[in-house]
From TrEMBL:
Keywords: Lipid biosynthesis, Lipid metabolism, Membrane, Phospholipid biosynthesis, Phospholipid metabolism, Transferase, Transmembrane, Transmembrane helix. This is CDP-diacylglycerol--serine O-phosphatidyltransferase. It is found in: Endomembrane system. It is a multi-pass membrane protein. The chain crosses the membrane at residues 94-111, 123-141, 147-166, 178-200, 206-224. The keyword Ligase does not apply. It catalyses: a CDP-1,2-diacyl-sn-glycerol + L-serine = a 1,2-diacyl-sn-glycero-3-phospho-L-serine + CMP + H(+). Its EC number is 2.7.8.8. It comes from Anoxybacillus andreesenii. GO terms for molecular function: CDP-diacylglycerol-serine O-phosphatidyltransferase activity.
Length: 233
């Protein structure tokens, strides 16, 4: 029973990612765009942890892989497309809605192609931009949209659609200890701090205050575990 509970932990993180996507769509529909974008970023945190936890706990499974894909298409495909539609593409009415709907279509194709790719190659590189990264970029564009011309959003949105289904090889970080990418993590957390500073915390305090410390704790654990293994070796 205990082993079964432990092995279900990665799936719990994946379901948390999926729920963040659902909540993001709801916040976007209610006009709370910063909160919707933050939920996508929190979904990225959870998505970066579930696979690593599965390998750490030796709980890899076909169910977990399929569940992860379903969560990703919602949180990083559908939620960002609604966010971009409500913040910019709504100006174009029906055409804007049609264009916004292309992003999850390209993302779904990207995920399906990834699921049938060889496991060995996926450990070293991704073919095409992962939907997680693409959805996160759109979320950040929304957060800082007031500082950027609308044409940039359109260009980046279109480029990401095609880059997801492209054959460009993107280096994979699956076998690389996460703390080595401290710059990426720092930028990511810095964006969240900026949003809090701009006043989002008045509307949406608790989840962001819980998610960021937990993610930092996870990074610290990975760092300590890595150095412990080096000393033992």
């Amino acid at each position: 029973m205990k082993i079964r509970i432990i092995k279900s932990i990665p799936n719990a993180f994946t379901l948390g990612n999926l729920y963040c996507g659902f909540l993001s769509i709801g916040f976007a529909a209610n006009g709370q765009y910063n909160n919707a974008a933050i939920l996508i970023l929190i979904g990225m945190m959870l998505d970066s942890m579930d696979g690593r936890l599965a390998r750490m706990l030796k709980a890899d499974s076909t169910l977990g892989k399929e569940l992860d894909s379903l969560a990703d298409i919602v949180t990083f495909g559908i939620a960002p497309s609604f966010l971009v539609y409500y913040t910019y593409f709504y100006h174009f009415e029906l055409l804007g809605l049609i264009v916004a709907g292309l992003f999850p279509l390209f993302g779904a194709y990207r995920l399906a192609r990834f699921n049938i790719s060889s496991t060995k190659s996926s450990l070293h590189y991704f073919v095409g931009v992962p939907i997680t990264a693409a959805g996160g970029i759109l979320a950040l564009l929304t957060l800082f949209g007031s500082y950027l011309p609308n044409i940039i959003t359109t260009v980046v949105y279109t480029a990401l659609c095609f880059l997801m289904v492209s054959r460009i090889r993107i280096p994979s970080l699956k076998e690389v200890p996460l703390p080595k990418y401290g710059t990426i993590v720092t930028i990511f957390l810095g964006c969240l701090v900026f949003v809090i500073y701009k006043g989002t915390y008045n509307e949406f305090p608790y989840l962001i205050y819980i998610a960021v410390p937990l993610y930092i704790a996870y990074l610290a654990y990975r760092f300590v575990k890595k150095h412990k293994k080096e000393h033992e070796a």
